[in-house]
Design goal:
Strand order of the largest sheet: 5-4-6-7-1-8-14-13-9-10
CATH class of the largest domain: Alpha Beta
CATH topology of the largest domain: Peroxisomal Thiolase, Chain A, domain 1
CATH architecture of the largest domain: 3-Layer(aba) Sandwich
Radius of gyration: 20 Å
Distance between the termini: 20 Å
Helix content: 25-40%
Largest sheet: 10 strands, mixed
Number of domains: 2
Strand content: 15-25%
Number of strands: 14
Shape: globular
Structural class: alpha/beta
Number of helices: 14
Protein backbone atom coordinates (compact mmCIF):
# COMPACT_ATOMS: atom_id res chain seq x y z
CA UNK A 1 0.00 0.00 0.00
CA UNK A 2 1.07 3.58 -0.62
CA UNK A 3 1.11 6.23 2.09
CA UNK A 4 -2.10 7.74 0.68
CA UNK A 5 -5.14 7.50 2.99
CA UNK A 6 -7.01 4.24 2.56
CA UNK A 7 -10.61 4.67 1.38
CA UNK A 8 -13.36 2.65 3.03
CA UNK A 9 -16.31 1.34 1.04
CA UNK A 10 -19.50 -0.50 1.95
CA UNK A 11 -19.93 -3.80 0.12
CA UNK A 12 -22.51 -5.66 2.20
CA UNK A 13 -25.55 -4.90 4.35
CA UNK A 14 -27.58 -7.02 6.75
CA UNK A 15 -30.70 -5.87 8.59
CA UNK A 16 -33.45 -7.15 10.86
CA UNK A 17 -35.91 -4.42 11.74
CA UNK A 18 -39.57 -3.93 12.69
CA UNK A 19 -40.44 -3.75 8.97
CA UNK A 20 -38.37 -6.67 7.66
CA UNK A 21 -36.15 -9.65 8.39
CA UNK A 22 -33.63 -8.69 5.70
CA UNK A 23 -32.17 -5.63 4.05
CA UNK A 24 -34.45 -5.96 1.02
CA UNK A 25 -37.58 -6.36 3.16
CA UNK A 26 -36.57 -3.44 5.37
CA UNK A 27 -35.86 -1.16 2.40
CA UNK A 28 -39.13 -2.08 0.69
CA UNK A 29 -41.02 -1.37 3.91
CA UNK A 30 -39.33 2.00 4.36
CA UNK A 31 -39.97 3.12 0.79
CA UNK A 32 -43.60 2.01 1.12
CA UNK A 33 -43.99 4.08 4.28
CA UNK A 34 -45.03 1.01 6.25
CA UNK A 35 -45.15 1.31 10.03
CA UNK A 36 -43.63 -1.41 12.19
CA UNK A 37 -45.21 -0.05 15.36
CA UNK A 38 -47.74 -2.39 16.95
CA UNK A 39 -49.21 -3.56 20.23
CA UNK A 40 -46.52 -4.78 22.60
CA UNK A 41 -46.76 -8.55 23.12
CA UNK A 42 -43.25 -9.44 24.37
CA UNK A 43 -44.59 -9.30 27.93
CA UNK A 44 -47.81 -8.27 29.68
CA UNK A 45 -47.85 -4.51 29.16
CA UNK A 46 -51.34 -3.95 30.58
CA UNK A 47 -50.07 -2.32 33.83
CA UNK A 48 -48.08 0.27 31.88
CA UNK A 49 -49.33 3.58 30.44
CA UNK A 50 -47.59 2.77 27.13
CA UNK A 51 -48.46 -0.52 25.43
CA UNK A 52 -46.98 -0.13 21.93
CA UNK A 53 -43.52 -0.75 20.49
CA UNK A 54 -41.67 -1.54 17.27
CA UNK A 55 -40.36 -5.09 17.59
CA UNK A 56 -38.78 -7.59 15.22
CA UNK A 57 -41.31 -10.31 14.50
CA UNK A 58 -40.72 -13.78 13.12
CA UNK A 59 -37.02 -13.98 13.96
CA UNK A 60 -35.72 -17.50 14.64
CA UNK A 61 -32.14 -17.59 15.98
CA UNK A 62 -31.87 -21.27 15.03
CA UNK A 63 -31.72 -20.12 11.43
CA UNK A 64 -28.20 -18.81 12.05
CA UNK A 65 -26.86 -20.71 15.06
CA UNK A 66 -27.12 -24.00 16.90
CA UNK A 67 -29.54 -24.50 19.76
CA UNK A 68 -26.61 -24.63 22.18
CA UNK A 69 -25.21 -21.32 20.91
CA UNK A 70 -28.67 -19.75 21.03
CA UNK A 71 -29.04 -20.68 24.72
CA UNK A 72 -25.71 -18.96 25.43
CA UNK A 73 -26.55 -15.81 23.48
CA UNK A 74 -28.96 -13.00 24.36
CA UNK A 75 -31.41 -11.70 21.76
CA UNK A 76 -29.41 -8.56 20.94
CA UNK A 77 -26.42 -10.73 20.02
CA UNK A 78 -28.56 -13.21 18.07
CA UNK A 79 -29.87 -10.35 15.94
CA UNK A 80 -26.31 -9.14 15.36
CA UNK A 81 -25.18 -12.58 14.20
CA UNK A 82 -28.10 -12.83 11.78
CA UNK A 83 -27.46 -9.34 10.36
CA UNK A 84 -23.74 -10.10 10.03
CA UNK A 85 -24.41 -13.33 8.18
CA UNK A 86 -26.59 -11.48 5.67
CA UNK A 87 -24.00 -8.71 5.29
CA UNK A 88 -21.19 -11.18 4.58
CA UNK A 89 -23.35 -13.08 2.10
CA UNK A 90 -24.38 -9.83 0.44
CA UNK A 91 -20.74 -8.75 0.13
CA UNK A 92 -19.68 -12.11 -1.27
CA UNK A 93 -16.80 -12.04 1.20
CA UNK A 94 -15.13 -15.38 1.87
CA UNK A 95 -13.46 -15.46 5.28
CA UNK A 96 -10.38 -17.54 4.56
CA UNK A 97 -7.91 -17.81 7.49
CA UNK A 98 -5.75 -14.94 6.24
CA UNK A 99 -8.89 -12.79 5.79
CA UNK A 100 -10.17 -13.65 9.27
CA UNK A 101 -7.01 -12.18 10.78
CA UNK A 102 -7.43 -8.93 8.83
CA UNK A 103 -11.14 -8.54 9.65
CA UNK A 104 -12.47 -6.53 12.56
CA UNK A 105 -15.82 -6.53 14.36
CA UNK A 106 -17.36 -3.44 15.92
CA UNK A 107 -20.98 -4.04 16.91
CA UNK A 108 -22.46 -1.33 19.11
CA UNK A 109 -25.35 -1.45 21.55
CA UNK A 110 -26.77 0.68 24.32
CA UNK A 111 -28.33 -1.78 26.75
CA UNK A 112 -26.88 -5.14 25.75
CA UNK A 113 -28.51 -8.24 27.22
CA UNK A 114 -30.64 -6.56 29.85
CA UNK A 115 -33.42 -9.03 29.01
CA UNK A 116 -31.32 -11.78 30.63
CA UNK A 117 -31.09 -9.74 33.82
CA UNK A 118 -34.88 -9.36 33.91
CA UNK A 119 -35.24 -13.11 33.55
CA UNK A 120 -32.79 -14.01 36.31
CA UNK A 121 -33.52 -11.28 38.88
CA UNK A 122 -36.69 -12.95 40.31
CA UNK A 123 -34.59 -15.97 41.30
CA UNK A 124 -32.28 -13.76 43.33
CA UNK A 125 -35.16 -11.89 44.93
CA UNK A 126 -36.77 -15.22 45.75
CA UNK A 127 -33.84 -16.15 47.95
CA UNK A 128 -32.34 -18.68 45.55
CA UNK A 129 -29.08 -17.12 44.30
CA UNK A 130 -27.74 -20.56 43.47
CA UNK A 131 -30.38 -20.87 40.75
CA UNK A 132 -29.08 -17.85 38.83
CA UNK A 133 -27.54 -19.11 35.60
CA UNK A 134 -23.73 -19.04 35.37
CA UNK A 135 -24.28 -17.67 31.87
CA UNK A 136 -25.83 -14.44 33.17
CA UNK A 137 -22.75 -12.28 32.62
CA UNK A 138 -22.01 -13.63 29.12
CA UNK A 139 -25.66 -13.04 28.27
CA UNK A 140 -25.73 -9.56 29.80
CA UNK A 141 -22.53 -7.72 28.96
CA UNK A 142 -22.57 -5.39 25.98
CA UNK A 143 -19.52 -6.76 24.14
CA UNK A 144 -21.16 -10.15 23.62
CA UNK A 145 -22.74 -9.18 20.29
CA UNK A 146 -19.31 -8.47 18.82
CA UNK A 147 -17.98 -11.58 20.54
CA UNK A 148 -20.80 -13.76 19.17
CA UNK A 149 -20.15 -12.49 15.65
CA UNK A 150 -16.41 -13.14 16.00
CA UNK A 151 -17.03 -16.67 17.29
CA UNK A 152 -19.65 -17.44 14.65
CA UNK A 153 -17.39 -16.52 11.73
CA UNK A 154 -13.92 -17.17 13.18
CA UNK A 155 -12.93 -13.50 12.95
CA UNK A 156 -9.64 -12.82 14.74
CA UNK A 157 -8.95 -9.15 14.01
CA UNK A 158 -9.77 -6.19 16.28
CA UNK A 159 -13.07 -6.36 18.15
CA UNK A 160 -14.86 -3.64 20.09
CA UNK A 161 -18.22 -2.52 21.40
CA UNK A 162 -19.07 1.17 21.56
CA UNK A 163 -21.77 2.15 24.04
CA UNK A 164 -22.93 5.64 23.16
CA UNK A 165 -26.66 5.42 23.82
CA UNK A 166 -28.62 6.33 20.69
CA UNK A 167 -25.42 7.28 18.83
CA UNK A 168 -23.85 3.83 19.28
CA UNK A 169 -24.49 2.42 15.79
CA UNK A 170 -22.99 5.46 14.09
CA UNK A 171 -19.96 5.36 16.40
CA UNK A 172 -19.31 1.78 15.25
CA UNK A 173 -19.21 2.96 11.64
CA UNK A 174 -16.83 5.74 12.58
CA UNK A 175 -14.59 3.18 14.25
CA UNK A 176 -14.69 0.95 11.17
CA UNK A 177 -13.65 3.91 9.02
CA UNK A 178 -10.68 4.64 11.28
CA UNK A 179 -9.57 1.00 11.35
CA UNK A 180 -9.53 0.95 7.55
CA UNK A 181 -7.77 4.30 7.31
CA UNK A 182 -5.03 3.37 9.78
CA UNK A 183 -4.52 -0.13 8.38
CA UNK A 184 -5.61 -1.89 11.56
CA UNK A 185 -8.08 -3.93 9.50
CA UNK A 186 -8.84 -4.52 5.83
CA UNK A 187 -12.45 -5.61 6.38
CA UNK A 188 -14.83 -4.70 9.21
CA UNK A 189 -18.25 -5.92 10.26
CA UNK A 190 -19.72 -2.74 11.72
CA UNK A 191 -23.15 -1.73 12.97
CA UNK A 192 -25.53 -1.71 15.89
CA UNK A 193 -28.01 -3.98 17.63
CA UNK A 194 -30.63 -3.61 20.34
CA UNK A 195 -33.25 -5.88 21.91
CA UNK A 196 -34.21 -4.46 25.29
CA UNK A 197 -37.99 -4.81 25.29
CA UNK A 198 -38.21 -5.91 28.93
CA UNK A 199 -40.46 -4.95 31.87
CA UNK A 200 -37.69 -3.15 33.77
CA UNK A 201 -36.64 -1.06 30.78
CA UNK A 202 -40.28 -0.38 30.02
CA UNK A 203 -40.97 0.81 33.56
CA UNK A 204 -37.98 3.17 33.35
CA UNK A 205 -39.04 4.58 29.98
CA UNK A 206 -42.61 5.11 31.13
CA UNK A 207 -41.36 6.89 34.26
CA UNK A 208 -39.15 9.08 32.09
CA UNK A 209 -42.21 10.17 30.11
CA UNK A 210 -40.43 10.10 26.75
CA UNK A 211 -42.64 7.57 24.96
CA UNK A 212 -45.65 8.20 22.76
CA UNK A 213 -48.90 7.20 24.46
CA UNK A 214 -50.93 6.61 21.28
CA UNK A 215 -51.93 3.10 22.34
CA UNK A 216 -55.07 3.14 20.21
CA UNK A 217 -53.25 4.12 17.01
CA UNK A 218 -49.82 2.45 17.01
CA UNK A 219 -49.10 3.13 13.34
CA UNK A 220 -49.60 6.85 13.92
CA UNK A 221 -47.60 7.05 17.13
CA UNK A 222 -44.15 7.93 15.79
CA UNK A 223 -44.48 11.45 14.37
CA UNK A 224 -41.12 13.20 13.91
CA UNK A 225 -41.41 16.93 13.17
CA UNK A 226 -45.22 16.83 13.42
CA UNK A 227 -47.07 19.39 15.52
CA UNK A 228 -48.88 16.63 17.43
CA UNK A 229 -45.87 14.44 18.31
CA UNK A 230 -45.87 13.24 21.89
CA UNK A 231 -42.71 11.15 22.24
CA UNK A 232 -40.72 8.39 20.60
CA UNK A 233 -41.62 4.76 20.03
CA UNK A 234 -39.19 2.23 21.43
CA UNK A 235 -37.90 -0.36 18.97
CA UNK A 236 -35.42 -3.16 18.44
CA UNK A 237 -33.35 -4.47 15.57
CA UNK A 238 -29.88 -4.88 14.10
CA UNK A 239 -28.08 -3.39 11.09
CA UNK A 240 -24.57 -4.49 10.12
CA UNK A 241 -22.33 -3.44 7.21
CA UNK A 242 -19.29 -4.97 5.58
CA UNK A 243 -16.80 -2.12 5.31
CA UNK A 244 -13.58 -2.80 3.43
CA UNK A 245 -10.58 -1.20 1.82
CA UNK A 246 -11.54 0.16 -1.57
CA UNK A 247 -8.57 -1.33 -3.41
CA UNK A 248 -9.35 -4.81 -2.07
CA UNK A 249 -13.00 -4.47 -3.00
CA UNK A 250 -12.03 -3.45 -6.53
CA UNK A 251 -9.51 -6.28 -6.76
CA UNK A 252 -12.15 -8.90 -5.99
CA UNK A 253 -14.68 -7.08 -8.19
CA UNK A 254 -17.11 -6.62 -5.32
CA UNK A 255 -20.28 -4.62 -5.76
CA UNK A 256 -19.75 -1.31 -3.95
CA UNK A 257 -22.79 0.42 -2.47
CA UNK A 258 -21.11 3.64 -1.39
CA UNK A 259 -18.03 5.11 0.20
CA UNK A 260 -17.95 5.47 3.97
CA UNK A 261 -16.48 8.89 3.47
CA UNK A 262 -16.38 10.65 6.83
CA UNK A 263 -17.56 10.72 10.42
CA UNK A 264 -17.30 12.89 13.51
CA UNK A 265 -18.31 12.98 17.16
CA UNK A 266 -19.07 15.80 19.58
CA UNK A 267 -20.55 16.08 23.06
CA UNK A 268 -23.27 18.51 24.10
CA UNK A 269 -21.97 18.72 27.70
CA UNK A 270 -25.46 19.89 28.60
CA UNK A 271 -27.96 17.40 30.09
CA UNK A 272 -28.51 13.71 30.78
CA UNK A 273 -31.44 13.34 28.36
CA UNK A 274 -32.25 16.66 26.68
CA UNK A 275 -30.43 18.06 23.63
CA UNK A 276 -28.89 21.51 23.56
CA UNK A 277 -31.71 23.78 22.35
CA UNK A 278 -29.33 25.89 20.26
CA UNK A 279 -28.22 22.85 18.24
CA UNK A 280 -24.71 24.24 18.10
CA UNK A 281 -22.75 21.13 19.08
CA UNK A 282 -24.82 18.76 16.93
CA UNK A 283 -24.29 21.15 14.03
CA UNK A 284 -20.55 21.03 14.62
CA UNK A 285 -20.63 17.23 14.38
CA UNK A 286 -22.30 17.56 10.96
CA UNK A 287 -19.75 20.10 9.77
CA UNK A 288 -16.85 17.97 11.03
CA UNK A 289 -18.20 14.85 9.31
CA UNK A 290 -18.36 16.78 6.04
CA UNK A 291 -14.85 18.09 6.53
CA UNK A 292 -13.65 14.56 7.27
CA UNK A 293 -15.18 13.49 3.95
CA UNK A 294 -13.55 16.39 2.11
CA UNK A 295 -17.03 17.71 1.29
CA UNK A 296 -19.11 20.82 1.90
CA UNK A 297 -22.73 21.67 2.60
CA UNK A 298 -23.29 22.13 -1.13
CA UNK A 299 -22.55 18.42 -1.69
CA UNK A 300 -25.28 17.17 0.67
CA UNK A 301 -28.44 15.81 -0.96
CA UNK A 302 -29.95 14.01 2.03
CA UNK A 303 -29.89 14.22 5.80
CA UNK A 304 -31.18 11.09 7.50
CA UNK A 305 -32.46 12.70 10.65
CA UNK A 306 -32.19 11.41 14.19
CA UNK A 307 -35.84 12.55 14.26
CA UNK A 308 -37.15 10.87 17.40
CA UNK A 309 -40.56 12.53 17.56
CA UNK A 310 -39.94 14.13 20.95
CA UNK A 311 -40.85 17.80 21.33
CA UNK A 312 -37.34 18.99 22.19
CA UNK A 313 -35.25 16.79 19.91
CA UNK A 314 -36.96 17.61 16.63
CA UNK A 315 -36.69 21.36 17.10
CA UNK A 316 -33.07 21.17 18.22
CA UNK A 317 -32.15 18.98 15.24
CA UNK A 318 -33.90 21.32 12.82
CA UNK A 319 -31.88 24.21 14.25
CA UNK A 320 -28.69 22.14 13.99
CA UNK A 321 -29.29 21.24 10.33
CA UNK A 322 -29.83 24.92 9.50
CA UNK A 323 -26.62 25.90 11.26
CA UNK A 324 -24.57 23.13 9.65
CA UNK A 325 -25.81 23.49 6.07
CA UNK A 326 -26.67 27.18 5.88
CA UNK A 327 -28.71 28.07 2.81
CA UNK A 328 -28.45 24.46 1.57
CA UNK A 329 -30.68 23.36 4.48
CA UNK A 330 -33.72 24.84 2.72
CA UNK A 331 -33.31 22.63 -0.33
CA UNK A 332 -31.87 19.39 1.05
CA UNK A 333 -34.18 16.42 1.73
CA UNK A 334 -34.50 15.34 5.38
CA UNK A 335 -35.91 11.86 6.05
CA UNK A 336 -36.91 10.45 9.44
CA UNK A 337 -37.05 6.62 9.34
CA UNK A 338 -38.00 6.42 13.02
CA UNK A 339 -41.49 7.39 11.90
CA UNK A 340 -41.73 3.81 10.59
CA UNK A 341 -39.38 1.65 12.67
CA UNK A 342 -39.37 3.54 15.94
CA UNK A 343 -36.18 4.24 17.84
CA UNK A 344 -33.76 1.30 17.58
CA UNK A 345 -31.50 2.93 20.21
CA UNK A 346 -28.09 1.25 19.75
CA UNK A 347 -28.94 0.30 16.16
CA UNK A 348 -30.52 3.65 15.24
CA UNK A 349 -27.38 5.23 13.80
CA UNK A 350 -26.67 2.16 11.68
CA UNK A 351 -30.27 2.19 10.39
CA UNK A 352 -29.85 5.84 9.44
CA UNK A 353 -26.69 4.97 7.51
CA UNK A 354 -28.56 2.15 5.73
CA UNK A 355 -31.12 4.69 4.52
CA UNK A 356 -28.36 6.96 3.24
CA UNK A 357 -26.51 4.15 1.45
CA UNK A 358 -29.58 2.68 -0.25
CA UNK A 359 -30.89 6.14 -1.19
CA UNK A 360 -27.58 6.62 -3.03
CA UNK A 361 -27.95 3.27 -4.76
CA UNK A 362 -31.58 3.62 -5.83
CA UNK A 363 -32.13 7.37 -6.10
CA UNK A 364 -35.09 6.98 -3.74
CA UNK A 365 -35.68 8.64 -0.37
CA UNK A 366 -38.02 7.08 2.24
CA UNK A 367 -40.75 9.33 3.61
CA UNK A 368 -41.35 10.75 7.04
CA UNK A 369 -44.79 9.26 7.67
CA UNK A 370 -47.41 10.70 10.04
CA UNK A 371 -46.24 14.22 9.19
CA UNK A 372 -49.82 15.41 8.84
CA UNK A 373 -49.48 18.77 10.60
CA UNK A 374 -45.90 20.10 10.38
CA UNK A 375 -44.65 21.94 13.43
CA UNK A 376 -44.05 25.59 12.43
CA UNK A 377 -40.72 25.38 14.28
CA UNK A 378 -39.71 22.42 12.08
CA UNK A 379 -39.74 24.03 8.66
CA UNK A 380 -37.42 21.96 6.47
CA UNK A 381 -38.21 19.48 3.68
CA UNK A 382 -38.85 16.27 5.63
CA UNK A 383 -40.10 14.25 2.61
CA UNK A 384 -43.60 14.06 4.08
CA UNK A 385 -45.85 10.99 3.78
CA UNK A 386 -44.55 9.49 0.51
CA UNK A 387 -41.18 8.35 -0.81
CA UNK A 388 -39.45 10.53 -3.37
CA UNK A 389 -37.33 9.76 -6.42
CA UNK A 390 -34.23 11.94 -6.39
CA UNK A 391 -30.52 11.47 -7.05
CA UNK A 392 -28.43 11.30 -3.89
CA UNK A 393 -24.69 11.81 -4.12
CA UNK A 394 -23.88 12.37 -0.45
CA UNK A 395 -25.96 11.66 2.64
CA UNK A 396 -25.43 12.54 6.28
CA UNK A 397 -26.74 10.12 8.92
CA UNK A 398 -27.39 11.83 12.26
CA UNK A 399 -27.32 10.01 15.60
CA UNK A 400 -27.69 11.94 18.84
CA UNK A 401 -27.65 10.00 22.13
CA UNK A 402 -28.67 10.44 25.75
CA UNK A 403 -25.92 12.23 27.62
CA UNK A 404 -25.27 14.48 24.65
CA UNK A 405 -23.20 12.09 22.51
CA UNK A 406 -23.46 13.13 18.87
CA UNK A 407 -22.12 11.12 15.95
CA UNK A 408 -22.65 11.92 12.27
CA UNK A 409 -21.61 9.67 9.38
CA UNK A 410 -21.18 10.77 5.75
CA UNK A 411 -21.72 8.26 2.94
CA UNK A 412 -21.00 9.15 -0.67
CA UNK A 413 -21.67 7.71 -4.12
CA UNK A 414 -18.65 6.09 -5.75
CA UNK A 415 -17.67 7.10 -9.28
CA UNK A 416 -18.36 4.39 -11.82
CA UNK A 417 -15.35 2.39 -13.01
Amino acid sequence: MSDLPRRAVITGIGALTPVGLSTSETWAGLLAGRSGVRRLTRFDASPFPVRIAADVQGFDPLRVMSRKRARRTARFAQLAVAASEEALRDAGLSLAPETQERTGVTIATALGGVDALDLEAPRLRGGAPGRVTPLLLPLLIANMAASAVSIQFGIRGPSNTSVGACASGAIALMEALRWIQTGEADYVLAGGTEAALTPSVWAALCSLGALSKRNDAPEAASRPFDRDRDGFVYGEGAVVFVVEREDLARRREARVYAELAGAAMTSDAFHETAPRPDGDVAARAMRLALADAGASAHDVDLVVAHGTGTPLNDIAETVAIKQALGARARTVAVSAPKSMVGHLIGAAGALAALVGVLAIRDGAIPPTINLDHPDPSCDLDYVPLRARRAPVRLALANAFGFGGQNCVVAVRAMPAR
